[in-house]
Design brief:
single chain, 13 helices, mainly alpha
Amino acid sequence: MSSKSWPEDLQNYAATRLLRPRIALLWLVVGACMLAASAGGGPDRMAASMLLAAFLIAQFRLWDDLADRAHDARHHARRVLVGSPHAGRFSQLCVAGALPVLGLLWAWREPMRLAAYGLLCAAMAGLYLASGAWPRLLRAQLVLLKYPSFVWLVASGVSPRAGLGLGAALWLVLALHDLLSDRTLQAGPHWRALAAIECLALIALLGLAALGFFKPVH
């Protein structure tokens, strides 16, 4: 168990799990989708959407790591949360991470978005609790659904069809990346077949987009 202080563990966690090029790229990809979905709300909402993307990614990244401590103890024993005695404080920080998100959504004066964020948190909590014994491959793919939810959370001025297509494309890109980069997922069966199916689905989705299927119908 780590003997480091809370500030040291917090700094180490931020350096190894948040302030990394991979997370910056994730923010750019998710943020770009959120920008596309929020363009109908004007420049202020688009700027707030990028800030919201950063807060949401940080909060749910921490939540993922807290939920994965048992798995990480077997496969990633050097991660900060595995040996940290400050798991309770990290949990409190995860809850506190909702405050800036709620503040940004409240500023839009649209209560339904606050309700949608609450439903997202409840759904993810239920998924984390229910999926502990599920196959790792299934669980890993399902938790990625939070990212399309971020996009739908800010959608303004886009058709439901376009919002659905944008969210589906984002999930497929992230799911494929996860399958192709995570060796623990590749240790199980069927990951190649699933990757092939998702690749074909993404190609089909891009083809539909090129044909104008996701454009608003007037």
